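Same chain as my last thread, 173 residues:
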Amino acid sequence: MCLHPNENPTTPFVSPVLDSGNYHSWSRSMLTALSAKNKLEFVDGTATQPAKTDSTFLAWNQCNNMVVLWLVHFVFVPIRQSIAWMDKNVQIWNDLKTRYSQGDLSRISDLQMEASSLNQGELSIIDYFTKLSIIWDELENFIPEPICICKNCTCNISSIVSQQKREDQDMQF
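reply #2:
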């Protein structure tokens, strides 16, 4: 647990900032950036706060505060005001996740409509497929595949759903 000398609260490493409509892509970018900086454990809860008398407390506190500043800095101003008084990353992360990660049915509908109405037109096949892939990836964030909880699974729900998604994507392509 330490900070690199070039780590500061305003170094841009996530773009765009979190707003009310981009939580999934923002959180993915933020998790990737935090992982690259070896600070992921501050938002997933595995870097627990040591006792104030512990020799690692100052280093933990310094890292925690830097991640708090990153989280606060990379959200839209009205959201920033709602988390400004939180001082633990896990608290901030969970609050943002609770508020903004909910499946947005209108966004899902918009994405499905966009995918079904997209046509290649003047686009190259690569550009057309890339546009569809971006839509499919965003839909995947809103509608993740179900995970089977059967003991000694015989229902094959995961493979059935995966196959259905592939068929839907094939028809859209």
